[in-house]
Amino acid sequence: MISGIGIDIIELSRIKKAITRNNRFIDRILTENEKGVYETYKKEQRKLEYVAGRFAAKEAFAKATGKGIGKLSFQHIEILTKENGAPMMNVQGYEGEKIYLSITHSKQYAVAQVVITK
């Protein structure tokens, strides 16, 4: 049974401005494991897509729960990659839920959709 659906879209330019303006933005959005992956990317565009995708995914999850970011922390939501390359989401306090996640990027946007089932 579906218990929540959320979607989020973010402009890459907005994320780029946030990173430039606030050197702690990356620390606020990404977990330690996510930062480890982020640091492996050489190209700035790929780093930007990565952060924007994670930001959108975490916002989409918050919308799917109906709580929003504020009641949930970006640090409680972690997105890693399965062996086949698909993203997977782990969330503190939601270990019993099945979470489906899709992230995509274009030249200007990152979009993520989350479906939660029980």
TrEMBL record:
Main location: cytoplasm
Subcellular location: Cytoplasm
Cited InterPro entries: 4-PPantetheinyl_Trfase_dom (IPR008278), 4-PPantetheinyl_Trfase_dom_sf (IPR037143), ACPS (IPR002582), Ppantetheine-prot_Trfase_dom (IPR004568)
One GO CC term on file: cytoplasm
Keyword rRNA-binding set for record: no
Catalytic activity: apo-[ACP] + CoA = holo-[ACP] + adenosine 3',5'-bisphosphate + H(+)
Name by which UniProt lists this protein: Holo-[acyl-carrier-protein] synthase
Protein encoded by which gene: acpS
